[in-house]
């Protein structure tokens, strides 16, 4: 039997937000891949999927290092690719778990590119992105009418942030943990400061909601933090 590779989005944190298809695929998996960085012991994606794992499923924890050294990265990616191919060659159903949606700022996208020409079937199962779950939880529309919504990685340059914040009505800011202070200053500068909220670890037991971002300690911002902001309406 030929192996098949699945990329499964497990959503932001609540196991009940997985789609029916995602649950079915996870329940039938022979191998579940839990990606991690070299600094993290556990896997948030694996803990979210845990209620749906069969007891005898094989858990494969692959390290995807977050470093700038090209040789280290190339070696790690090649080793991970070979590990996945070995499972597929054995005819197994291999599920790669990823937070949120597989095609939205995820490691899965790069794994997909490595495997798409391998000759094995690949199926990608979408998941709920964190910012969609946050908007629903807070009762805050992400965009309405003719609003412009921009999804911004907060790691971009100040010049790029200025250009985008100057023309949009609603923003979703991802990866805010790296330069939180700069992000807050820019939101205030462009009229978003009065209507901004940050949720950290949305849907998980230790979720935190911050309505006053001035009171947030920049050194304590979690990796899984997202800011939703609306521009102040004048007149």
TrEMBL record:
Q: Which UniProt keywords apply?
A: Cobalamin biosynthesis, Methyltransferase, S-adenosyl-L-methionine, Transferase
Q: Which InterPro entries match?
A: 4pyrrol_Mease, 4pyrrol_Methylase_sf, 4pyrrole_Mease_sub1, 4pyrrole_Mease_sub2, CobI/CbiL, CobI/CbiL/CobIJ_dom
Q: Which domain of life does the protein's organism represent?
A: Bacteria
GO molecular function terms listed in the Swiss-Prot or TrEMBL record:
precorrin-2 C20-methyltransferase activity
Query: Entry's CDD domains?
Result: Precorrin_2_C20_MT
Q: Which GO terms describe its biological process?
A: methylation
Query: Which EC number(s) does UniProt give?
Result: 2.1.1.130
SUPFAM superfamilies named among the record's database cross-references: Tetrapyrrole methylase
Domain annotation Tetrapyrrole methylase: ranges: 5-210
- What is its pathway? Cofactor biosynthesis; adenosylcobalamin biosynthesis
Q: Does the keyword Glycoprotein apply?
A: no
Q: Which residues form a coiled coil?
A: none
UniProt lists the family membership as follows:
Belongs to the precorrin methyltransferase family.
Give the protein name, as stated in the record.
Precorrin-2 C(20)-methyltransferase
Instruction: State the species of origin.
Output: Pelosinus baikalensis
Upper classification of the organism: Bacteria, Bacillati, Bacillota, Negativicutes, Selenomonadales
List the gene name: cobI
